[in-house]
Amino acid sequence: STYLELGYGVYEDDDTSVSLTVGAGNGMYVTEEDFNVVNVGLTVSAGSMSASYIINPDSETNFLVVGYSF
Question: pTM for the whole thing?
Answer without folding.
Answer: 0.85
